[in-house]
């Protein structure tokens, strides 16, 4: 690692003011800070001394998201494999089918590895496209404005795929993350100055711009021609009966956005953030409390035309 440190230090002169690659200094600094702790420190008072810098904070957030990523891989594959079994399907078309055949993992919903591999073939492409498209805008704005590229995009790039359905067209992934990064963050000045969450802004844009691909019953299972409603949609429709149990909802074995289905995975992430003091339990508790109060209020009001008024806080 000393060799790498020395190599980076030797190249830094080309990226400083006056160097032939000075315009790419934000990109160079981002790479340096990603590998090593930032070398710049403040010397004059007043300032706070703390071991938790932005880089470590974002890394803890990424670690907290790992349980939801694992469940996203597993449940996406599980729902697809279950749908194939129910419809009599024996293979997956296209390049995904070729990969599954090559790996020999099959399409068995009772096999953990089979579910994870199948789910990964939907999650990973969306994740990589998100990194490429969103990273392009991060580097572009950082280069033009000559400001550092924040590690915050590591979190955004992971959050965005988790809140999408598995079959979303890839070009819409590009549009969504581009809108989220540019309109949700960069036009405000970048990290620390944006009032909107880039990942949620991108998803909101897709919801209103392309509702057919991100809502309804046909987008939550990664098998063409298979429709399955989410529990919330079933509860909202007086004709439908709830087809999942509370245990399934807790574990996340239900249709939905890839990383949003498992309450347990989300709670594990929340505990990690609270223990490391990256997240505030007060904020989390306040959000849950607000949901419970509003839900109970709707239950109390009631409605003869809107079944959503009858949905309890449990769901």
Gyration radius, in Å: 22 Å
Q: What overall geometry do the principal axes of the alpha carbons give?
A: globular
Distance between the first and last residues' Cα:
50 Å
Mean pLDDT: 83
Main β-sheet description: none
Low-confidence stretches: none
Beta-strand portion reads under 5%
The secondary-structure element order is HHHHHHHHHHHH
Helix content: 55-70%
Briefly note the structural class of the backbone. Answer: mainly alpha
Beta strand count:
0
The number of helices is 12
Number of domains: 3
Write structural notes for this entry.
The chain is built from twelve helices and no strands. It is mainly alpha-helical and 315 residues long. The chain has three domains: 34 residues, no CATH class; 226 residues, no CATH class; 36 residues. It is globular.
List the helices and strands and how they pair.
Layout: H1 2-11, H2 25-35, H3 54-87, H4 94-103, H5 112-145, H6 152-162, H7 170-184, H8 198-209, H9 231-236, H10 246-251, H11 263-275, H12 281-301
Helix pairs in contact: 3-5, 3-6, 3-11, 5-6, 5-7, 6-8, 7-8
Summarize the structure.
This protein is mostly helical and 315 residues long.
Keywords:
315 residues, mainly alpha, 3 domains, 12 helices
């Amino acid at each position: 690692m000393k060799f790498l440190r020395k190599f980076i230090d030797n190249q830094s002169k080309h990226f400083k003011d006056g160097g032939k690659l000075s315009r790419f200094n934000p990109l160079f600094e981002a790479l340096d800070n990603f590998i090593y702790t930032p070398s710049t420190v403040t010397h004059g008072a007043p300032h706070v001394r703390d071991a938790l810098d932005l880089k470590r904070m974002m890394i803890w957030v990424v670690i907290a998201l790992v349980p939801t990523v694992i469940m996203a891989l597993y449940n996406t594959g599980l729902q697809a494999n279950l749908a194939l079994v129910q419809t009599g399907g024996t293979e997956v078309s296209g390049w995904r089918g070729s990969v599954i055949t090559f790996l020999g993992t099959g399409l068995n919903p009772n096999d953990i590895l089979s579910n994870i591999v199948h789910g990964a073939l939907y999650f990973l492409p969306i994740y990589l496209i998100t990194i490429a498209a969103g990273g392009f805008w991060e580097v572009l704005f950082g280069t033009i404005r000559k400001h550092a590229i924040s590690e915050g995009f590591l979190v955004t790039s992971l959050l965005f795929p988790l809140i999408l359905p598995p079959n979303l067209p890839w070009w819409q992934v590009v549009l969504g993350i581009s809108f989220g990064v540019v309109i949700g963050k960069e036009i405000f000045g970048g990290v620390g100055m944006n009032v909107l969450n880039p990942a949620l802004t991108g998803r909101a844009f897709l919801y209103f711009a392309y509702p057919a691909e991100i809502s309804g019953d046909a987008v939550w299972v990664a098998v063409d021609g298979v429709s399955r409603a989410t529990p919330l949609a079933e509860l909202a429709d007086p004709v439908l009966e709830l087809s999942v149990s509370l245990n399934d909802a807790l574990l996340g074995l239900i249709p939905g956005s890839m990383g949003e289905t498992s309450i347990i995975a989300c709670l594990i992430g929340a505990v990690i953030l609270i223990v490391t003091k990256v997240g505030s339990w007060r904020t989390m508790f306040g959000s849950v409390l607000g949901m419970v109060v509003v839900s109970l209020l709707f239950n109390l009001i009631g409605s003869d035309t809107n079944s959503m008024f009858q949905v309890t806080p449990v769901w």
